[in-house]
Amino acid sequence: MNDEKLDIYLRAYQAQTDINPSARLMANILAVPGMGQAGVIAFPWNLFDLMMPKAVGWALTCVLGIYLGFYSAEQGHNPLDEEFYLYDQAQVLLSEDMEDSF
Amino acid sequence: MNINITDEQLMIRIGGGDSTAYKVLVERHLRPYHVFATRVIQDRAGAEDIMQEAFVRVWKNASKWDQGRKTRFTTWFYRVVMNLCIDAKRKYKPAVDLAEAYDVQSDEIQPDAHLSEKQMAAEIEQALKHLPDRQRMAMTLCYLQGLGNKEAADILGVTTSAMESLLVRGRKKMAELLSAHKKAFIEETTR
After folding, report:
1. With contacts defined as CB-CB under 8 Å, which chain B residues touch A39?
2. Which of B23, B45, B101, B124 has the greatest CB tally within 10 Å of its CB?
3. Are A10 and B144 an interchain contact pair (Cβ–Cβ within 8 Å)?
4. Which of B46, B72, B101 is the last residue of a domain?
C-alpha cells in the first residue's frame, strides 16, 4: 500500500473515531470537585459520602458518653474518696498551723 | 471567565479550589483527549473511565502545579491519559470490536475504490492493534490527534529524531499489515 492510500485510510479512521463525549461523562467529570454544594444538589447521593465521616465521629462520641455515664453511675460510694477528703482536710489544717507559727 | 486564559493559569486557579476554572478546563479538553483515549484503547466505555480518572488527577494535582514549570498542560495531560491507557489496555478487553460497532460485513469484499469510510476505519483499527505500543502511540499522536513531531516526542519522552523513526517504522508496518490483509481477502474470494 502506498503512502497516499495509507493517508486516506488514516483520515477515514480519524473521521470515524472523532466522536463527541456523552453528556453523562461531562456531568460525572464536573462532579469531581462537587464535594461542595453544587455536587450535592446535582448528585444527592454525594451527601451520604459527605456526611459519613461526621456521622461516624458523632456516633462514637455518643456511645462513649453513654458508656461512661452508666459506668460512673454504677460505681456508688467509693471509700477511697473519703480518705482523700480527710487527707485534704489534714493538709489544710497543717498549712493553717504553719501560717500561725510565722 | 476570560476565554484567553491559558491552561497553565487555569491549573493554578484550580489549585486554589476554583471550580469554575476546572469547568473551563474540562470543556476545553474533554473532547480531544476522550477521542485520543478511544483511539488508543479502542473501547468507548473504557475511554470514559480513563477520562474520569484523568480529570480526578487534574483536580488533585492542580495544587502542586508550579507556575515556573516548563511543561505545558497539554503535554502533561497527554502523558497522564496515555499512561492510564497503557494500564487499561493491560486490564481491559474491548467489549465491542470496532468492526462490529461500525456494522462492517467482513464477507463483503469490495475493491478499494468502493470501500466505505467505515470499512477503511475498521481496517486501520485492526492494523493499529498489531503495532507495538510506542509506534501506535506515535502514529495516534501525530496522524490522528494532529500533533507536531516535537510535542509528540515530548509526550513520549523521546527525541524528535527518535519520534520520526517511530513514525517511519509505524507507517511501514501499517502499510504491510493493510496490504497483507487485502491480499488474504482476495485469495479467500478467488478460491
Report:
1. none
2. B124
3. yes
4. B101
Residues in Cβ contact with B74 at an 8 Å cutoff, skipping those fewer than 6 apart: B7, B29, B151
Summarize pLDDT for B90-115 with one digit per residue, the tens. 876 555 544 444 444 444 444 455 56
Residue B3 backbone phi and psi in degrees, to 5: -75, -15
Last residue of a domain, one of B83, B101, B119: B101
Q: B129 is in which domain, residue-wise?
A: 109-191
Instruction: Give me the pLDDT at residue A31, please.
Output: 85
Q: Output the nine-digit C-alpha cell for B114.
A: 468502493
Residue A65's Cβ-count burial label (10 Å; 0-12, 13-18, 19+) is exposed
Looking at the structure, tell me whether residues B6 and B94 fall in a common domain: yes
User: Which domain CATH number covers B65?
Assistant: 1.10.1740.10
Give this prediction's pTM.
0.67
User: Count of domains in chain B?
Assistant: 2
Residues B56 and B144 in one domain: no
CB-nearest partner of B52 from A5, A17, A29:
A29
Residue B72 and residue B113 in one domain: no
CA distance A80 to A87: 11
Contact A2 B175 (CB under 8 A): yes
Closest CB to A32: pick one of B56, B171, B176: B56
Q: Which residue has the cell 509506534?
A: B135
